[in-house]
Design goal:
This protein is α/β, with parallel strands linked by helices. The protein has eight helices and 16 strands. It has four domains: 76 residues, Translation Initiation Factor IF3, CATH 3.30.110; 94 residues, UDP-n-acetylglucosamine1-carboxyvinyl-transferase, Chain, CATH 3.65.10; 61 residues; 93 residues, RNA 3'-terminal phosphate cyclase, insert domain (Dihydrodipicolinate Reductase, domain 2, 2-Layer Sandwich). The protein is globular.
Length: 336
């Protein structure tokens, strides 16, 4: 059994997602202990419960507040083309998808995951626009094929989102993303609840983006949308498309904060990422690492920042798979 001591690592959510996904794929039992000061949260439980829908096996410790989990995986489910995941309140749909996408690649048929409830855009997780237009775009370069349909947006605190994603069986390819080459355009996705339309919240978020990026005369493609949601909320996602890669940032509306400032913060963060000249931003880096390892060939990526969460993911991956990561400056290499 693979033992993972959460107290020596950073980011219990990342540990759980990566460890459980790789456990399901490799069929190696795992024991994660010292998970966090508060133990398992509702978001952690959602990831665990979602995974059991596509992987048979036994789980011990899957209850709120538990400080340890044992997972004894069996076979991935091969005869179920659709699974349904119900999410309470504003637990994140994208974090659940991070757990499910990896093992779904090893199912012999296309798998459709239908989410009912939860948040498409909430705190401490990627917005669905970032997930779709940055993370999945990088995975497309590795031969991953998916289809995603957002039927209803869900914001914090009530959620209520609806989403469908189909993941096709794929043999992952290695990637070598060292130089990103020239910028093609920046896509700006700005959205908000219908109840905020009179206040022009989505448009004002974009005005904050223009305040920062407009001075640089960059090619920006803007998209404004308003949605029927259970509670008020807003989001913005900026996607910089280069010849060889894509990077992005996102932000969420907050009570008492000007919409213009939400857009401005996202734009400043994109500029910060852009100045590193790296092919992966700091958020996509840690999410991509297990895919690099599962491709089973040498891969190299230049990244904007080696975060503690990134180092944590590397330690977890190397416990399950043969090979190792090398870090030199801002270059990460997987050597199988």
């Amino acid at each position: 059994m693979i033992e993972i001591n959460g107290i020596t690592l950073e980011g219990s959510g990342q540990i759980l997602k990566t460890a459980l996904s790789l456990s399901a794929i490799t069929k190696k039992d795992c024991h994660i202990f010292n998970i966090s000061k508060t133990g398992l949260t509702s978001q952690h439980l959602l990831a665990i419960q979602s995974l059991t829908k596509i992987c048979k096996g036994k789980i011990e410790g899957d209850k709120l507040g538990s400080e340890e989990v044992k997972f004894f995986p069996e076979e991935l489910i091969q005869n179920q083309p659709i699974i349904n995941v119900k999410i309470e309140a504003a637990n994140s749909i994208t974090l659940a998808l991070q757990t499910l996408t990896l093992p779904a690649l090893f199912i012999s048929h296309p798998l459709k995951i239908v989410f009912e409830g939860g948040a498409t855009d909430t705190f401490f997780s990627p917005t669905i626009d970032y997930f779709q237009h940055v993370f999945l775009k990088i995975l497309e370069m590795m031969n991953l094929k998916t289809e995603i349909c957002v039927k209803k947006r869900g914001y914090y605190p009530e959620g209520g989102g609806e989403l469908e994603m189909t993941i096709y069986p794929s043999k992952l390819k290695g990637i070598h993303l060292i130089e990103r080459d020239s910028l093609k355009k920046i896509k700006a996705f700005s959205g908000a609840s219908e109840s905020l339309k009179d206040k022009k919240v989505a448009e004002r978020q974009l005005s904050g983006v223009r305040e920062v990026l407009g001075k640089l005369k960059l090619p920006i493609e803007e998209k404004v949308e308003y949605y029927d949601t259970l509670c008020p909320g807003s989001h913005i996602c900026l996607v910089a498309e280069f010849e060889n890669t894509v990077i992005g940032t996102d932000n969420l509306g907050k009570l008492g904060k000007r919409a213009e400032d939400i857009g401005k913060e996202a734009a400043l963060e994109l500029l910060k990422e852009s100045k590193t000249n790296a092919c992966l931003d700091k958020h996509s880096t840690e999410q991509i690492l297990p895919y690099l390892a599962l491709a089973s060939v040498k891969s190299q990526v230049s990244v904007s920042e080696i975060t503690d969460s990134c180092r944590t993911n590397i330690q977890v991956i190397e416990k399950f798979l043969k090979g190792n990561f090398e870090i030199k400056g801002n270059l990460i290499t997987w050597i199988p």
